[in-house]
Amino acid sequence: MKTTQESIFSSKTLTYFLQLAETMNYTQAAQILGITQPALTQQIKKLERTVGAPLFYSVGKKLRLSDAGYTMLNATHSIYDVLNKATDEIQQTTSATQGAINIGVLASIEDHVFEDFAIKYYEANPNVIISFHMLTRKEIWERLENNRIDLAVMYLPDESIKNWKPYQSKKIIQDELLFISGDPKQAKKKRIKFKDTISEPWAMYPENYYLDQVIKESYKNQMADLPTAVARFTTPQQIYRFVAATETNTALPNSFMVANPAVDKLHTVSFEPAIKFDLNFVFRKDKDQIPRIKNFLDEFDNYLRSDDYISRLQKINQK
């Protein structure tokens, strides 16, 4: 017979509770978990009976955490922190040249440099299996929290992240968002004011993507109207191809444009003021002390020491 602790702290129970606490929506949480809404409701009610208090309550159509729910959420995060720390401590005794490394890459990032490095890293470390996962920002943070990826490659600063305590970052480069247009008037410009970029419709990233939020915040800070989006795509390659084929505008990272120089009819201009952000490795604290992770990061540093990130992109483009 299961003890109370076993009923509360089973992996499945905690996963269901965390997902509902994340989405605050039974239908959405059930879809993400791959179960039916009644099955999720039953599991949450079972958990509430076990702890002896409601964990959620409704205000109209909106779901909220109760005081007991917040206590359970804090306890659940503490449990995961202990398990993740134990896993990292165990892994710190493993080999630097064997094992697996899981890397989450933000889907909107130009990834040619990481592909090129992976080839060279494999040649020197054939017994380390590297897995790259192209993910949304939300997926990256969920997998970091659950220790399902070792490293994340993503943009910072990220104001949506409220709890940075368990994590640390390692800067790769500073990047810049550039205005891309087919308007011949932009051909000789080096900089453009925000209010002068909205005469034509845009192709953009999906709403709530990091760069979409950066664009919105930048226009808001300059008290300029937002561009009108007529198409949204998840990758810079898709946006670029759409803009090249239509009379639309967009904004894409400099790193992407270095790897994909603008065709003759497209023009690249810096915003005034510039929109800058950093590309980083993000990982749980002390994860970089695991031998194979440390070796990976050290070799990536060496890889960029001879040719920096932008130079690597330029060379890859010339191949």
Automatic annotation (TrEMBL):
Keywords: DNA-binding, Transcription, Transcription regulation. Residues 9-66 form the HTH lysR-type domain. Pfam families: HTH_1 (PF00126), LysR_substrate (PF03466). It comes from the Bacteria. InterPro entries: HTH-type_LysR_regulators (IPR050950), LysR_HTH_N (IPR000847), LysR_subst-bd (IPR005119), WH-like_DNA-bd_sf (IPR036388), WH_DNA-bd_sf (IPR036390). GO terms for molecular function: DNA binding; DNA-binding transcription factor activity. Coiled coil: none annotated. One of its GO terms (cellular component) is cytosol. Belongs to the LysR transcriptional regulatory family. This is Transcription regulator. It comes from Lactiplantibacillus xiangfangensis. The lineage of its organism: Bacteria, Bacillati, Bacillota, Bacilli, Lactobacillales.
